[in-house]
Amino acid sequence: MSVTLLKQTNPDLEQRFLLPSNYSWQEFEVLEKLLTGSRSLRITYLDGWIELMTLGEPHELIKSLLGMFLEAYSIEMGIEFIPVGSATRRGEEKGTSFEPDESYYLGEQKANPDLAIEVILTSGSLQKLEKYRRFQIPEVWFWEDDRLKIYHLENHDYQEISRSRLLPELDLTLLVRCVQMPSRLEAMNAFRDGLRHA
Question: The whole model's pTM is what?
Answer without folding.
Answer: 0.89
